[in-house]
Amino acid sequence: MALLVHLSDLHVGAMNFHAEILLKAIGQINDLNPDLTIVTGDLTENGYYLEFLKASQYLEKIESPLMVVPGNHDSRHVGNETFEEVLKHRHGTIENDTKTLKVIGLDSSEPDLDYGKVGRSQQIWMEKELQKAYNEKQYKVIALHHHIIPVPKTGRERNVLADAGDVLFSLINNKTDLVISGHKHVPHVWKLENTIFVTAGTVSSLKLRGKDLNSFNIYNIKEDCIEINLRQVQGKKYLLAKYENTCRN
Prior knowledge:
Helices cover about 25% and strands about 25% of the residues. The chain is α/β, with parallel strands linked by helices.
């Protein structure tokens, strides 16, 4: 049905940003020829204008249709305004060519704050888009920067969504198939009821835990199942999880 690539946390402009790793990852992504590529925030380190321009130059090298949502680092130093100027919409939707899948991108960032929030108005919009997708029998994907469920092996929890409970209720109640996020630099998969929650590692920052490598996620979404693969930029590809598709039934 669809092949999605999910990358996150580029951190262009940081001392630990590694351009060669990002370029290698982009080459690997283009070789996959996915239906859609989703970037879940922290494109920049400080939200500076020149950082956004450089990040945009990297993203232009991705050949597949692209959705980008902002992270907390992107909303520093009026970066929330710069994001709209350089990369356009901070939230929106994108579909694959066959219209069998819809990605709903959310802006979970708050200016100059590390914690996230979706907010009531954006949550209502999200619910309406999920209902439209449900009526069209589309596979429903939510993309945002901040995780909704805490991620193991990431230390003390500080930056989960301020309105995580309400957003989580909406996602489950509207039979969301897949929720993807970044922020923690640690790839992980949770399944809650019939919704799958996946966080991505960092694709090009050297702020890594333990022996983790830079990586991005690959979602092979089929009519009967979803395969979630981790692609290590400097290493190998392996299966993180595989689940039956149940929300669309």
